[in-house]
Write a structure and sequence with these properties.
It is a single chain. The protein is elongated. By secondary structure, it is an alpha+beta fold. It starts with a helix and ends in an 8-residue tail after the last strand.
Length: 418
């Protein structure tokens, strides 16, 4: 009799537990993520900081309690620092804050755009807010962004970006074969800078931009320095040496103007040069040219619609071509006759830790020890720093079509000269 009672009690308990779990799942399925942009807060005084603080409290209060799924649920959120930003015509407010979560669910980091700390279930975040006055004692959040996005909008940043200027860099002694610029002269070196060989008229031809500036930071896929071949795209010509800089020759590529970043690759069959030949409504349009003998150049087929906004172009030794537009990567195995898009997987361990994917721009490709490598950076608005370094993601591929995340690496931009 006692055994029967125990079994009945256990069944009732299990039924109750299942019913509670089912009810909880039902409630969680009906959970609606609180609105950010477009949400309204009541406040009867024109103080943007107080308005932001009220909105912050109301917003995160909606993330508390058992009705909120664990991938959104918090126990507390507090503002560490609030600052009114007045660089623009209207004030914005930056909030630096700490959030304590109700569980260790990794998804909450991404959902709430948080950053991890050394303390369990404790995360930090930053946001910049702008509120529109509705004229009735209420304010509507009409802009929410990260601090770096706000900085890009400021007049100081815009003026700096639009002012012609030339930045100088120190030589990279960790790379035995590279280029170096000093006092308006372009050099190449084959022994980590112990011997510098001048490229005749190279600074004007390769680095000149026509607006008073000189680009002294060449993109890594825009030049080649090896013992067998050294080359730079110089306008719509190729300036090259076949004897380690002892003599230099010029090969005319096309009559099209070179309007933007250039890319140079050497394959077993010849040489590929890609540069912008047209510009419209702020967009650059690229063409690729091939030469087997460094004398005669022919146009290479492009994908339908052509190329615009290229961030990288690279041809492997075997002649497979790659073109990147931001995070989109395309490959041609047959010299431009056909094209396929290559998927670049997210660096999941990075995304889960940060709550977002900082890597969105293919910046470099190269071959080494039989593998094809891909470097994905953060683009112009990147602000993810680790151990004091701006970070990039390194991928590798054995077959040129399937890429695997290898590790995070520090941006190897040369140190600025003092």
């Amino acid at each position: 009799m006692k055994i029967k009672q125990i079994m009945i009690s256990a069944a009732v308990f299990l039924w109750g537990f299942a019913a509670a779990a089912g009810f909880r799942e039902f409630v969680w399925d009906r959970f609606v993520v609180p609105q950010t942009v477009g949400s309204t807060v009541e406040y009867y005084a024109d103080d943007p900081e107080v308005t932001a603080r009220l909105w912050f409290q109301e917003y995160f209060d909606q993330m508390k309690g058992w009705k909120v799924p664990y991938e959104y649920r918090i126990t507390d959120a507090e503002i560490d620092q609030a600052e009114v930003l007045d660089d623009l015509e209207e004030p914005y407010v930056q909030l630096d804050y700490t959030v304590h979560t109700a569980s260790s669910n990794a998804q909450i980091v991404q959902n709430l755009e948080l950053m991890t700390t050394d303390t369990r279930r404790t995360f930090t975040g930053q946001m910049v807010l702008h509120f529109a006055d509705n004229g009735d004692g209420t304010y509507t959040l009409d802009e929410k962004m990260r601090p770096v996005q706000y900085q890009i909008m400021t007049p100081e940043f815009q003026e700096e970006r639009n002012t012609p200027q030339t930045q100088h860099y120190k030589i990279r002694t960790d790379d035995p074969m590279t280029y170096y610029i000093e006092n308006g002269v372009l050099y190449v070196t084959y022994d980590s800078g112990n011997t510098l060989i001048e490229v005749p008229d190279g600074y004007e031809k390769v680095c000149g931009r026509g607006d008073g500036r000189y680009n002294e930071l060449l993109n890594p896929n825009g030049y080649i320095v090896t013992e067998e071949f050294t080359g730079f795209v110089a306008g719509n010509d190729l300036l090259y040496s076949l004897d380690q800089g002892q003599s230099w020759q010029t090969s005319h590529i096309s009559d099209y103007p070179n309007l933007a970043e250039s890319f140079l690759s050497r394959t077993d069959g010849g040489y590929y040069v890609t540069f912008a030949v047209d510009r419209s409504l702020g967009n650059d349009y690229y063409a690729t040219f091939f030469s087997a003998d460094l004398k005669n150049w022919e146009s290479v087929n492009s994908k339908e619609g052509g190329w615009s906004g290229l961030t990288c172009s690279f041809w492997t030794k075997s002649g497979t071509g790659y073109y990147a537009q931001g995070e989109s990567l395309y490959m041609t195995p047959d010299g431009g006759e056909s094209w396929q898009q290559i998927e670049i997987p997210e660096a999941e361990e990075v995304t889960s830790r940060l709550g977002f994917n900082p890597y969105d721009t293919v910046e470099q490709m190269y071959e080494k020890d039989g593998l094809l490598y891909l470097v994905v950076g953060q683009g112009d608005d990147g602000d993810y720093v680790k151990d004091g370094n701006l970070m990039e993601a390194l991928y590798s591929s054995q077959d040129g079509t399937v890429f695997t995340f290898v590790e995070e690496i520090a941006d190897d931009t040369p140190e600025e000269a003092g």
